[in-house]
Amino acid sequence: DLYRKVFVFRKDPSDAYVLLRAKLEQPLQNFTVCLRSYTDLTRPHSLFSYATKAQDNDILLFKPKPSEYRLYVGGKFVTFRVPEGHGDWEHVCASWESATGIAEFWLNGKPWPRKGLQRGYTVGAEAAILLGQEQDAFGGGFDVYNSFSGELADVYLWDAGLSPDKMRAAYQSLRLPPAVLAWKNLSYEVKGDVVVKPRLRE
């Protein structure tokens, strides 16, 4: 249970990462991924990387620059342009549904205009899920200049799209539905220079 704790990725650039274990029984037709990040990086960095043997960017939440987030599904991506942060925690949720190909992006509890991505696609179930690095191969192939440096917290993955109420609940750290990856019950393994610390502030 990592409630009120964070992963601190101490170095920049870094070869460190955190490997997450999810209980996935079947491929994903829908998903929602949420997390909080706190960093002063201005270079590209990966926040959440979900690779299968068939596709290294099956799900990827990536920040190429301070004013953009990218959501990849099955190797294709859409870009969400955002105001540059003010050196504060940023909470992001991204969801996708295969049936409509609709991608939603929420930043700090507010929805951005929805975009279309990979309608009819299915995300594989056998996955390597990493925080802190972007996979160019299953479980590896890292470029240190895409690595994350800073603090990460409140990481969740659901095998469903969340309702707007639940998206806001995730931002406010309220009660959430059961997840395949849940911060309050996380199965993880730290690889390299990552430290678990109490969260300093809200």
TrEMBL record:
Cofactor remark from the record: Binds 2 calcium ions per subunit.
Domain of life: Eukaryota
InterPro entries linked to this entry: ConA-like_dom_sf, Pentaxin_CS, Pentraxin_domain, PTX_dom
Family annotation (SMART domains): PTX (SM00159)
Cystine bridges: 34-93
Domain annotation Pentraxin (PTX): ranges: 3-202
Subcellular location: Secreted
Names of required cofactors: Ca(2+)
Record keywords: Acute phase, Calcium, Disulfide bond, Metal-binding, Secreted, Signal
Any one Gene Ontology cellular component term annotated for this protein: extracellular space
Primary location group: secreted
Pfam families linked: Pentaxin
Any GO BP annotation: acute-phase response
GO MF annotation terms: complement component C1q complex binding; metal ion binding
Entry keyword Metal-binding: yes
Keyword Cell membrane set for record: no
PANTHER family: C-REACTIVE PROTEIN, C-REACTIVE PROTEIN-RELATED
Family recorded in the similarity comment: Belongs to the pentraxin family.
Subunit structure: Homopentamer. Pentaxin (or pentraxin) have a discoid arrangement of 5 non-covalently bound subunits.
Name of the protein this chain belongs to: Pentraxin family member
Gene, per the UniProt record: APCS
